[in-house]
Design goal:
This protein is an all-alpha fold. Among the domains are: 156 residues, Alpha Horseshoe (Serine Threonine Protein Phosphatase 5, Tetratricopeptide repeat); 76 residues, Tetratricopeptide repeat domain (Serine Threonine Protein Phosphatase 5, Tetratricopeptide repeat), CATH 1.25.40.10. The protein contains 21 helices and no strands.
Amino acid sequence: MIAILAPALLMLAAGFPAQAAATARRSATAMHGAASFEQLAQAAKRARDENRDDAAIDSYRQALKLKPEWDEGLWYLGTLLYEKENYFEACTVLRSFLARNQENAYGWALLGLSEFETREYTRALDRLQQSMVLGLGDNGKMTSTVSYVTAILLTRSEKFDESMALLFTRVASGENASPLVEPLGLAALRLPFLPAEIPADRREMVHMAGAGALAVEAQHYEDADKLFNELEAKYPDQPGVHFLIGAYLLRTRPDDGIKELKREIEISPSHVPARIRLAEEYIKRQDVNQGKSFAQEALKLEPKNGLAHMVLGEGLVAKGDSAAGIRELEIAQDSLPDEARLRWDLFRAYTAAQRPEDAAREKGEIERLSKQDAAH
């Protein structure tokens, strides 16, 4: 991972982040009281400019003992420690920096990358997502690195759809897709591994799945068909394979897609996403009873699955049981607060049930989400 992260870090460390500049200026006014501190600060800067990293780190450490609140020193020490692969100390220093600079996206990004290296994966994911919310500006390399690490951590956390969406965003930005093939394959097969953790006997399978997912995204359907046919022929009994192929075939050959999804359930009896996809397909075909049955099976396996509640609610409303359908849709809100499809479902259901105040609230939520999407 170091080879991937280093280019972005070099750009980041080239200067103290603009977001912290104001704080740095305020801190500078307090420097004049201690000559020893100023000497150490100057020595640290000189060593850093001359690429004498060990000397710079030593001077920054000494200066920060005298002025622990020196933000510029905390920042440069944190970046240097990261470059030297001293990730544990980098985490400590960056946490001190962020305690005083909580709106600094680059600080959160570098802390998240450091915690990734120390295998504090849950914390790392939170920090990296925070940096993306705050915005990394036009630093393309850092954005690419943060997006990549965030995506693979989402996969490890079993948030496969979010991971794929983020990876496809990187592809759409024109980024080289080759390093994204395995992360996409893991997410597409719903395997909660980091790329470095892929078992040797599954690496080819993951690569084929990722290449197929990329082909679908690029609308190269002949290539996708070929890759998925090879994938199924080589790995007919591996969990995840038939779900991936079935989800793809629902677009073009839905009857074959249904067969593949049912085959996935035979191989993986507790596979919830396959049941949800089947429920959606049957409801779309107006076979509501069959769709409702698969949605209810999904909820028996995962009672709090928001998507399953949403699909079941859609089926119940379609069957004419508006009260029960609305209850299911409202339950889905807890885990899908920003799902536009759900908001439209509720708006239509409330309107049909003559609940104008609730319908107006959902219309407001739809407008909010539309503005939010436009902003991004």
